[in-house]
UniProtKB/TrEMBL annotation, chain A:
Residues in F-box domain copies: 4-45
Cellular localization per UniProt: Nucleus
Keyword Repressor attached: no
Classification via SUPFAM superfamilies: RNI-like (SSF52047)
Pathway it works in: Protein modification; protein ubiquitination
Protein name according to UniProt: F-box domain-containing protein
The entry's keywords: Auxin signaling pathway, Developmental protein, Nucleus, Ubl conjugation pathway
Naturally occurring in which organism (per UniProt): Gossypium darwinii (Darwin's cotton)
Automatic annotation (TrEMBL), chain B:
Keywords, ordered alphabetically: Auxin signaling pathway, Nucleus, Repressor, Transcription, Transcription regulation
Self-association state and partner proteins as the record states: Homodimers and heterodimers.
Identification of the protein by name: Auxin-responsive protein
Domain annotation PB1: ranges: 86-178
Matches recorded under InterPro entries: AUX/IAA_dom, AUX_IAA, PB1-like
CC terms in the record's Gene Ontology section: nucleus
Gene: LOC107926752
Source organism, top-level taxon: Eukaryota
Entry's localization field: Nucleus
Length: 572, 183
């Protein structure tokens, strides 16, 4: 291959798009490293503190698309204090100063200020795409800057962010000359939007393929938008409440029927269940249906809707669908690959409406199932064993029993055997979340069989350090391990500290690790940042090594201790 | 009222602990490292934990169930709206000296509404049929809708009814017959 000029190699590398593969390519030899780095356009950084923006810019001058993730996953569940970190401003600032022609920025669990958004909007002439998932720190003013200044914006996708809504005028900031929008998702905004501005924007965006509205967009506006954008592929409905005998509803029915390209449907943030029949004509083409924010839709109306969706590949739903409803899914959705069942009443643990029965039905009826997130009232070993047999193709298996240490209600045994069956049968399993009563035994199985496992989430499980050791020794491909409320201590933590350099991160909270143990890791592994998060002020007064650590987060990094940690984070 | 939420502050206190566990035993779930790991102790531990998590009021564990705050907040908003949004309408009965008020949101459907009205005014609703309205009673339930028209209760789906109903009137005697017979 060294006989080929660089341009040829570069052309060959163009066909290599996965991050993993490109990373491997860069390690082959110096010459390949050089060619790869100049031709690389898309970079994914799973932990924003593992590298600095300066080094990123130095290595990849041709960077066009950057994906950054900030806070650890357990931040989603309020286990990480708000100002822990993950600020995007330094990245945008550094990129703005450089000659990088950034076109796409995708952020997850990061703190994004209006200032950052404004700087972003003014610094990159060809900026095309902004995707923010589970971020916070910005208001609609920041969005206004993006709308006003990014002349060639194609994508503005806001997923489940906490946005301070200053009401409506940001949409009007898209200039008349902006006609390039392909994707607009503002479903997570809670405030009013200027409906006229929205209609005009959609009218002048002939390439618009994805549109997800928020609750403030009423049915009659929806109808007008659909009339102007029958080419939509992905639709998120805001408010869906109307009188089925009204003229507006008839017009909506006609508008929906024109949208023959819709393959993905979500939203229904407010819903009148008796109006669902208008949707039936497009159900037959749907591959993705997300009703997980529509508690108003349940019972027969929900089942009738699902019965129309024969081509569904991904279904996100609330547990009010019940086991019976899951039975309907099993009979109807033979192409189903991904199922997510969320709790409709997370504050009352006793009310989850699905049990192991629903899951078994789906596993029997949908053999292509490979990704699961299932919040349920209870689970049995027998059910898990059956599911493992029916669906050996699981890549993601996340089970959450609302009572976190509930045993098998039939046998009163722990769920070790059930999960053991899952990991043994599903040889391609990459992600696993456990719950229910679990002993060290389940971890023995995981260490033995889960060879492809990359991410493992454990809560309220195990009996001793052995559990953690089985996993660390057995799962060679493990990248992320997050543990809460388990009896794992220093012995497990310190057994093989070198392992942590092969992983992205380790989170342990409410376990048995001590300050001394954490210090030991930090001492032995300078390539890791070992962070102790303790808001209780204990750390200030009592620096006894034997003291148990409330929250520890460690991750590999090339750039040492971060400088932006708040007071209650100690980096050892 | 359907929802009976007393201010059980202890039960809703946020702290690190399992549902049902008391202050002192916060880490009970972790202390299962028994010297011998045979089945008996496993089952005993399971039973013990089962008992501990079986009480009627469940305290909330921080970060459990593991769902995103965004989603939790959304559902909470919807729940609050559903709970506090009471739909009170006036109910009158021909011949009764004063009107009453009822909250339509507390009823799941027509049968429950009728039972409540029957209890309140001491009468009986007749048998409903689509063709003939209410048969077998001189009392007929009617309502005023958003357009100001007086309609027979029971023709439209419940959800639609509670959104449209502005007030209720229990019509009596010959007047009722006229309404019930219209197809």
């Amino acid at each position: 291959m060294n006989y080929f000029p660089d341009e040829v190699l570069e052309h060959v590398f163009d066909f290599i798009t996965s991050h993993k593969d490109r990373n491997s390519v860069s390690l082959v030899c110096k010459s390949w490293y050089k060619i790869e780095r100049y031709s690389r356009q898309r970079v994914f950084i799973g932990n924003c503190y593992s590298i600095s923006p300066e080094r990123l810019i130095a290595r990849f001058p041709g960077l066009k698309s950057l994906t950054l993730k900030g806070k650890p996953h357990f931040a989603d569940f309020n286990l990480v204090p708000h100002d822990w970190g993950g600020f995007v401003y330094p990245w945008i600032e550094a990129l703005a100063k450089s000659r990088i022609g950034l076109e796409e920025l995708r952020l997850k669990r990061m703190v994004v200020s209006d200032e950052s958004l404004e700087l972003l909007s003014k610094s990159f002439v060809n900026f095309k795409s902004l995707v923010l998932v589970s971020c916070e720190g910005f208001t609609t003013d920041g969005l206004a800057a993006i709308a006003a200044n990014c002349r060639f914006l194609r994508e503005l996708d806001l997923q489940e962010n906490e946005v301070d809504d200053h009401r409506g005028h940001w949409l009007s900031c898209f200039p008349e000359s902006c006609t390039s929008l392909i994707s607009l998702n503002f479903a997570c905004l809670r405030g009013e939007v200027n409906l006229g501005a929205l209609e005009r924007l959609v009218s002048r965006s002939p390439n618009l393929k994805s549109l997800r509205l928020n609750r403030a967009v009423p049915l009659d506006t929806l109808q007008k938008l659909l009339m102007r954008a029958p080419q939509l592929v992905d639709l998120g409905i805001g408010s869906y409440v109307h009188d089925p005998f009204s003229e507006a509803y008839n017009k909506l029915k006609i508008a929906i029927q024109r949208c023959k390209s819709i393959r993905s449907l979500s939203g229904f943030l407010e819903v009148a269940p008796h109006c669902m029949s208008a949707i039936y004509p497009i159900c037959g083409n749907l591959t993705f249906l997300n009703l997980s924010y529509a508690p108003g839709l349940h019972g027969n109306k929900l089942m009738k809707l699902i019965q129309h969706c024969r081509k569904l590949q991904r279904l996100w739903i609330l547990d009010c669908i019940g086991d019976k409803g899951l039975g309907v899914v099993a009979l109807t959705c033979k192409e189903l690959q991904e199922l997510r069942v969320f709790p409709s009443d997370p504050f009352e643990a006793g009310n989850a409406a699905v049990t192991e029965e629903g899951l078994v039905l789906v596993s029997a009826g949908c053999p292509k199932l490979n990704s699961l997130l299932y919040f349920c009232q209870q689970m049995t070993n027998a059910a898990l064993i059956t599911v493992a047999k029916n669906c050996p193709n699981f890549i993601r298996f996340r089970l959450c029993i609302l009572d976190p240490i509930k045993p098998d209600p039939v046998t009163n045994q722990p769920l070790d055997e059930g999960f053991g069956a899952i990991v043994q049968s599903c040889k391609g399993l990459k992600r696993l979340s456990l719950s229910g009563l679990l002993t060290d035994q389940v971890f023995l199985y995981i260490g033995m069989y889960a060879e492809q496992l990359e991410m493992l989430s454990i809560a309220f499980a195990a009996d001793s350090d052995k559990g953690m050791l089985y996993v660390l020794n057995g799962c060679k491909k493990l990248r992320k391990l997050e543990i809460r409320d388990c009896p794992f201590g220093d012995a497990a933590l310190l057994e093989d500290v070198g392992k942590y350099e092969t992983m992205r991160s380790l989170w342990m909270s409410s376990c048995e690790v001590t300050l001394g143990g954490c210090k030991s890791v930090a001492e032995k592994m300078p390539s890791l940042n070992v962070e102790i998060i303790d808001e209780s002020e204990q750390m200030e007064f009592n620096l006894d090594d034997k003291q148990k650590v409330d929250k520890m987060y460690l991750y590999r990094t090339l750039v040492g201790h971060r400088k932006d940690a708040p007071e209650y984070v100690w980096i050892l | 009222m359907v929802f009976e939420k007393d201010l059980n502050l202890y039960a809703t206190e946020l702290r690190l602990g399992l549902p049902g566990s008391s202050e002192e035993s916060i880490r009970i779930s972790n202390k299962r490292a028994l010297p011998d790991m045979n089945d008996d102790s496993g089952v005993a531990a399971a039973k013990k934990c089962d008992q501990e998590t079986a009480p009627p009021t469940k305290a909330q564990v921080v970060g459990w169930p593991p769902i995103r705050s965004y989603r939790k907040n959304s559902l909470q908003t919807k729940k609050t709206e559903a709970e506090t949004g009471g739909m009170y309408v006036k109910v009158s009965m021909d011949g009764a000296p004063y009107l009453r008020k009822i909250d339509l949101k507390v009823y799941k459907g027509y049968p429950e509404l009728f039972k409540a009205m029957e209890d309140m005014f001491k009468f009986k609703v007749g048998k409903y049929s689509e063709r003939e309205g209410y048969n077998g009673s001189e009392f007929v339930p009617t309502y005023e809708d958003k357009d100001g028209d007086w309609m027979l209760v029971g023709d439209v789906p419940w959800e639609m009814f509670i959104n449209a109903c502005k007030r209720l009137r229990i019509v009596r005697g010959s007047e009722a017959r006229g309404l019930g017979c219209v197809v």
